[in-house]
Amino acid sequence: MDYALQNMDVGLVLLDGARRVLALNPAAVRLLGERAAGLVGAYLHDLHPPSHRAKVELLLAAAGDPSAPASACSIMVALPGRVLVVKATALAPAAAVAEGSAVTALMLMEGGRPAAADAQAVPVPPPEPLVKLPVEKGQGIVLLDPADAVYLQADGHYTTVHTADGAFFCGLPLSELEARLDARSFVRTHRGYIVNLRHARAVERQDGRAAFVMAAPGAPRVPVSRNRAEALKKRLAL
Q1: pTM score > 0.85 for this model?
Q2: Alpha helix (H) ranges present in the chain?
Q3: Which residues contact 112 (CB under 8 A, 6 or more apart)?
Q4: pLDDT (tens digit, 9 = 90+) per residue, 94-121?
């Protein structure tokens, strides 16, 4: 147990009194992966869908309450293939917390993983394929058939799923969707986009840049980044 604690990677994210990210340490960057990009200066609530913001606010309120139990100051965050434990604490006297000027520290720890010495000996199972795409509609969750997704667009740390019937919010990050959707149909064309090749109508070039023209209302164009263009050309025999 002591050895595991000594080898635990503990991330640290600092928030100012307005809930904006002040700084994060290298361990937080490692634990968050591509989610860490652009975090500094971001408003914490903007990183979560409206349906989750009340829970985040309760966590931050508990962090500034000395009488709050430890369980109220922590939440579990599911990421692809792992779970993070997030513990919050206010780094200021109670008076500063009441005035909203306290700095809050979020400590990130990975749960349910083997110690560093054993990590190489335990194979990590592949992520479960997605049979349905969970998206928000009204006050509930709708399960879309992945085949209906025309393309997917990164929306901060979440995703917008574009279909022929409109756009929907999905609480999963683009990186997890890339890992769990059928790679025969869904390809990453850009850091911020995944296309469903079954809905691709054409490939166009404009100002030296390629884009997929999608078979959907308005013929939306999805950009192809230069570092992915060659692999996509081979994939499509272009």
Answers
A1: no
A2: 2-6, 26-32, 50-63, 94-99, 116-119, 174-180, 226-235
A3: 82, 83
A4: 555 555 566 889 988 887 554 444 444 4
